[in-house]
Structure formats: C-alpha cells, structure tokens
Amino acid sequence: MRIEISGKIIKYILAIYTGLTIGFFIYFPISILYIYSVNNTPYFIPEWRGFTLQWFLKIFERGDLLNSIWNSLIIAVFVTAISMALGIPPSFYLVRTKGRIRDAYFLYLMIPFIIPWIIIGVADFILFWFIGVNKSLLTAALSHIVYSIPLIVVILTPRIYSLDPSLEEASMDLGADELTTFRKVTFPLIFPSIASAAIITFAWSFDNFVISYFTLGNELTWPVWVFSVIGKVPRIMPIINATSVIIITVSSIAIYILAKKGLTELF
Amino acid sequence: MSNKLLDRILYKYLIRRLGYYLGNLPGIIYILLLFYAPIAILFVISLTPPHKYIVIWEFTPINYFKVFTEATYYRILLNTFMIVSVATILLIIVAYPIAYYLARIAPNIGDRLLLFTIIPVEVNYLIRIYAWRVILGENGFLNSLLISMGLIHKPLTIFFYSWFAVVIVIIHEYLPYVVVPFYLNLRGIPNEIYEAAMDLGASKLQILRTITLPLSKPGLLSVVFIVFIPTLGEFAIPSLVGGQTGLMIGNLIDRYLSQFNLAIGATLSFFLLLFSIIISLIMIRLFGYEALYAR
Questions:
Q1: How confident is the model at residue A128 (pLDDT cuts 50, 70, 90)?
Q2: Chain A hits for B101, Cβ within 8 Å
C-alpha cells in the first residue's frame, strides 16, 4: 500500500515537472513572441498596452524583410533539391555494402556533419576568397549543401536498413530490372523517409544562420537579415516579431499535418 | 546457354557497380571541393603570420602558440568549454526525467507531446534568442516577477548579458533534441525486464540503478553529438545574450574574420575542427556508430 502511494506521488511529480519544464523552456519564450506581436508598443516591456494588428500590416512596408524571406525560400528549395540528388545514392550504398571502404566512406561523409557549423562557414568563406568568387546567395546555398548531404544520409540510412530486402528480391525474381524495382517497389516504400528528409533539410536550410552569415554576399537571408538589424534599426523588432509569429504558425501547422498523415517522421 | 547466363550476371553486376559509382561520385567530389579542399586551405592559412587584410605566404606555427599562451584567446577557449559542458550536463539532468515520464509513465501521449515540443523549435532560431532577452533582461519578466514578489528590490543584472543567459538559451534550443534519444532508448526497454525485476523483489531504486540508467547509456552518448559538439561553435547565442562573460570561440572567430585577419580566424577554426573530430572519434571508437543516429 505504501509503495503504491509513493509510486503515484512520483508519477504526479514527474508529470508536473514535465509540464513546467517544457512550459518554461519551450513555450514561455514562444508565447512571448505571440503576445508582443499584438501588443501596442514597439518596446518589449512587461506591460500590456492594448491589442493591435499594426505590426502585421507593417511587414508589407518593409521590402528588405520580404526580400530576405524570399531569398531564404529560394536557397532552401535549391539546397533541398541538390542535396537530395547527392545524398540518396550514398544512403543506399552505405546500407548495402560492408567493409573498410564503406566505413571510410561513411566517415568521409560524416565529418562535415559532426563538426560545428561555423567551421563549414569559415572554410567556405576562405575558399571563396581564395578562388576569388564573389559571395552571393549561390555561395551560401553551395555551403549549406556540405552539411545537408550527410544530414540526408543520417535520416535515410536507418530507414533503408529496416526495409525488407525480400520485397526487392521478389520484384527481381518476377523479371523487373533494377530501375523498375527501384521505381515501383523501393521508392514507394521509403517515400515517407525521403519526404521527411526533404522537409527537415528545407527547414534547416531556411533557418540556418551561422553558415549563411559567413558565406552570403549583399543579398541576405531571413536569419542573417534579422541578425543585422537586431538592436540597430529602431522600432523594427515588433515587425520582425510579427513575421516570425507567422512563420512559426505556418510551419508548425504544415509539419503537424504532414506528421499526422504519416508523410514525415521527425524522430 | 550457360555462357549467356554468365554474361547476363556479369552485365548486371557491372551495371550495378557502375550505377553505384555514378551515383556516389558527385557527392564525393562535392564534399571534396567544398569541404576538404577548403579545410586544407584553412590549415595552410593558419600557418601564415597574423596580418590584417593580406595573407603573407610564409609558414610558421606561431598562431597555435599564441592561441594557447595569450590570455585573450585561451580564456575564451576555456570559457567556451565551460559553458558548453555546463549546458550539456544541465540538459541531461533536465531532459532525462521528461524522457522517463513520456516513455515509461505516459507512453500514450509521449509521441504527440514530443512532436509538439520539437515543432516550435524547428524554425526562427534568432527571434527565439531575442525572446529570452525579454525574459532575462534588466527590465524583463524574471526581474519584474522577483520584484513584485518582494524577493529583490533592484533588478538583478546577472541574468542577462552573461554566460548564465547563454546556458539558458542553449537549454531552450536543444531540450527537445536531448529528450528524443533518451525517450527512444527508454521506450525500447521491454516491460518483461521490469516485471522480472519486480518479481525478484528489486526495489524501485535498484531497478533505476541496475536497469533503467545503464540502458540509457546510448542516449547519453548521442547527447555529445547533439549538443556538446555543435554548441562549441555557437555564435549567435553568445553575441545576442552573452555579454562579456558569455563570450565563446565563435565570437572570436567572427571578430578576426571581420577584421580580415584570416590567419588567426583560420587557426581558431582549425583548432575547433580538430577538437570536435577527436572527441567524435573517441566516442565512435568506444561506442560504435550508433551514437550518431539518435539525432
């Protein structure tokens, strides 16, 4: 009886702890963004000054802001497309072969993945200076791909590994060639994993700050533009805030729907 | 007949080989040109004497000595290591009970709750750092709360522009990603093990010590790859909330690159690269590649 009660108490304590911790560390700062996006003051002071939608309307007066979001979207699409094309073949190769060459190849691909992003940024910053290429959106996108190829490999390999090989063998036994088997059997089976790899890569690239910071030219992406105006341009914070509220809301709903439909697995 | 069959097998084998090479080659070349080659250039430049705006093509290891002997550098290196270590340890302590609760006590809501904690931290990294300025700042929420509760009379300044703020923001940024590997770990332990232990009369504490904690070790290892190594290169968080005590190696690298003192910037980056690779290789050697995958 005593054990029963103490077990229950531990359960309640853990439940309250989980709620409070997630509430404080994750939702408290995010709810602040939501509250200030409709608070009628340009300053982030702990005071309610009445409801307003002016910050949302002012987004459309800032051409540089809209431009930076557009740039981020372009880069994210480009990075996702190229890194999928470059990342899917190694994922299959790494699952289906064994031996030292495979292990070395895996390490070769993984080193850019495990190190801090700033190193990719600095290395490519120096590369573009060394070969005399002017930095632009393209150089930033090319630098993103260094990280997103192994990112895709890490997302895809465990899922390819868990594929039932007998399905492909059956297809081959029935006379389908490799390409047909891939198109009709393998690809549909791993489509959800490929979709989640694409979504995660897209979100990562859209939001990446460090690599872009070192490899962008005059055209800025959304995070780098925000960094460049924080604390420097007066009365811009509430507008940035309203924009980010839109981005968080839209992306959360999109990811939630995709996850619900089984099109993506975030973990 | 058999010759024809052999031909076909050989043909298939060749096609498959060729397919693999054609499929893998572009990625290999890409990483070579945009990662390994730049790293080589970076290393060469780290061996040139420090100078602004130009690189003098003479070679000396002086920068590496500088980094380890001059206080301005090694203090910040140590500071980085301290901040990241404290944040990683705190994250493990904070995240583990959450993972335990979600995986073993409330498994029916675990997946959904985790999804809801991961989704909001997927995007808008910079503005979320800014939100913490509103909470931790001198006239922020935390100080207003403490003053209204009568605990303090003047706003405290230690919360903000300090290493403390950097640690808090790192916890915010990485908490869901640390819960996930522990959660997957703990969820994977079969119930029968617990039942057997209880049948044999093990106490709750014994179960925790001999079953739950040892089986969470893989999760602990992936935390090194998820938090410790990536945050070593953190740069936006310390610049936005770190102040003087929260300076990290990323700020130092940025300072030298924006002065176009490439030699020092390259030295610091190369040191960071070596340090990260050595830690990773030790982890991989000791515990296998699985630690990478919980990400």
A1: very high
A2: 14-15, 17-18
